[in-house]
Amino acid sequence: MFALHETTRRRLTQTGFVVGCLLPTLAIVVCSWRLSRSEYRDAVATALGDRLGLAASIGRVRHPKPDVTLLDEVALADPETGARVARARLIEIESGVDVTTIRLSQLELAASDWSDWWELAQRELRHARRTSGKLRVSAGEITLRLASGDQTLTDVRCQSESSEAGSQLGVSFRVAGREMPEPATLSVFRSRQTSPATAGFELHTGETFLHGGLLIAAWPPAGHLGRHARFRGSLRAVNAATGWEGEIAGQLDDIDLEELVSAQFLHKLSGRGRLDLEHLRFRANRIEQASGALAAGPGRAGRGLLKAAADALGFEPVGEIKTIGQSIPYERLAVAFDIDPHGLSLRGQCPVAPGVALQGHELALMAEPKRASQPVVNLVRWLAPQSEVQAPATRESSALAAILPVPELVPPPSSDDANSAPATARRIRLLPPGTIGPK
User: Fold this and answer.
1) E-strand spans in 360-425?
2) In which band, very low, low, confident or very high, does the pLDDT at 195 lie, cut at 50, 70 and 90?
3) What is the pTM (predicted TM-score) of this model?
4) Does 352 or 19 have the greater pLDDT score?
5) Helix 23-36 and helix 38-52: axis angle, to 10°?
6) What are phi and psi of 264, to 5 degrees?
7) What is the pLDDT of residue 154?
């Protein structure tokens, strides 16, 4: 060994300090400064917005670890209108070898219309085919800003997977303030086993009713059920080339009959109701077959509604209703139904007596139709009556005819006799109001 001069030792120590301590520290400071610059933050926001198809803004970008990115005060907006669609206090992204994990804190979503979120989910499912690994997203709480009021979801878990057959995005969640033994699940999928690829979703609520605002956001006509309506059950739908098709089974509760009937038609009907759907199948946005039961009451029913029910649907008044006024009180409305393109079957289920469809205070008011089946168009005649024509072509009746399983207007092109029609599928002519009969 040889002794170093004191000056040499001092210089070596200083060099070691500069190389081993000062330079790495300065590198970290410079890197942090560059990452915190607005140019870098804006670049990250632009990349995020391009990926989601939205305008994105970020308050700050941090990298506490090499594989962890923190995004503070993230806001997403519609690129055309500038309306805010989402906001999060913090987004944490952790990149792994096989899994990318995203944790969301204090997320708010504008969910008055789910169509934009549907398109976003489908964009992500298409993108998942070109990437490897899984994506997991979690949020302790998500606030949905609905037109009918806010709804908070908790314990939200999301995971996406992709294969050659297709991609799937699965979400599980609970509704804040409600006892849920098991979470509700929503699966959004895209199948590449068909050409072109088909997309759809599947919802299972478990034993808990979901807020009606979620129904309205997904299907605006559900707004006619009333703002307090709730759904419990399962739904599967596929967006085929001819339109939506799928199946529904479950219950719709707290239906506002005044909003459903009186607000759309000239008839008067009030009360809260519940619709039990044993099974409903739809194709090309039209009901193909449905079975279930409607129960409601107490409330009031207009005399015109009862007369139309007798004339169009064959319900039979029991005794004479002597109540003064344009509407009468009722205690219970209970009707079971089966509907398909071949006809409509209605059965009274009030407890006062067999076959009673409407009852007052321990008194039968209306009995079920004697005919076992009748044309579906009679339902249109009941709610939008127009005695001069076969089926009234009004704005109200067209909305009903668009979803009911009514027969075809004309026989299929392959028919030898264009003027013939099956006895179970009566030909219907929709004529403007005021037209005197079919020509």
Assistant:
1) 364-367, 391-392
2) confident
3) 0.74
4) 352
5) 50
6) -110, -25
7) 94
What does the block give as tokens for 126? 């298409």
Rounded to an integer, what distance in angstroms lies between the CA atom of residue 157 and that of residue 169?
11
Range of 16-20, 115-119, 168-172, 176-180 with top mean pLDDT: 168-172
3 state SS of 386 = coil
- Which of 35, 85, 27 shows the shortest CA–CA distance to 60? 35
Residue with tokens 């609520």: 205
DSSP H or E run through 44: helix 38-52
Rg (CA), the chain: 31
407 Cβ contact partners less than 8 Å away, ≥ 6 residues apart: 341, 375, 376, 421, 425, 426, 427, 428
3-class state of residue 103 by DSSP = strand
Helical segments of 227-287, H only:
257
Contact 275, 251 (CB under 8 A): yes
Taken in order 303, 307, 313, 316, the sign of the CA dihedral is positive
Residue where the block lists tokens 């605002």:
213
Mean pLDDT across the stretch 269-294?
93
